[in-house]
């Protein structure tokens, strides 16, 4: 993305996350920390970038996520669209970001709650830790595997747009949802997962 389009994307994405976390009937879900210690992550050499292929599924074994991925564009007000609030919640890839495995930050959004339906697909995103694995299933049959490097919970007012959407010199992944305490119809924070491509396989 050019610097101009990246800034526009960041502004739109932040606007969508301020409003798109599941609706006024959503209930707070508290993500408890796992009781046991996880082994320290083993350093892995980053993988070479992949060609463009749209994501169709996402697996995060550490929190039991195995979800289809839909494509998201822009809402009528210019913000990034979020997945629809339905009983069968799904994650959504923002189609103007790189596809998972391409050079740059690929962005996937998901709800923490989905109105009267209860928990969203990213309800336990804050439980993830460095070294956990994320796998994006691509349209061409490839499984792009990412290792998490950081998980951050940040106030929406302080959303780190440059760090989330800025240029990077390797294939990376961003998973984003809402979190923190409730305020009126929404949440005060965002949970952001940062991950880097480590391997790819058929």
TrEMBL record:
Chain positions covered by the region annotation Disordered: 25-51
UniProt-listed InterPro entries: Sortase, Sortase_dom-sf, Sortase_F
Transmembrane segments: none
NCBIfam families: class_F_sortase
Protein's UniProt keywords contain Phosphoprotein: no
Protein name, per record: Class F sortase
Keyword Hydrolase attached: yes
């Amino acid at each position: 993305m050019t610097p101009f389009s990246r800034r526009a994307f960041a502004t739109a994405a932040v606007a969508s996350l301020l409003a798109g976390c599941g609706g006024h009937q959503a209930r707070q879900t508290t993500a408890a920390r796992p009781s046991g210690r996880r082994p320290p992550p083993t350093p892995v050499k980053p993988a070479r970038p992949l060609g463009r292929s749209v994501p169709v599924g996402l697996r995060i074994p550490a929190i039991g996520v195995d979800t289809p991925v839909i494509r998201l564009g822009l809402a009528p007000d210019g913000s990034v669209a979020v997945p629809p609030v339905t009983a069968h919640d799904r994650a959504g890839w923002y189609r103007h970001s790189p596809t998972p495995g391409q050079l740059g930050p690929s962005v996937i959004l998901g709800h923490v709650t989905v109105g009267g339906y209860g928990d969203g697909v990213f309800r336990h995103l804050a439980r993830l830790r460095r070294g956990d694995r994320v796998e994006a299933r691509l349209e061409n049959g490839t499984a792009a595997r990412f290792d998490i490097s950081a998980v951050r919970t940040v106030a929406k007012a302080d959303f780190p747009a440059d760090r989330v959407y800025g240029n990077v010199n390797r294939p990376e992944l961003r998973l984003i949802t809402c979190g923190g305490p409730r305020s009126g119809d929404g949440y005060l924070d965002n949970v952001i997962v940062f991950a880097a491509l480590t391997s790819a396989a058929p």
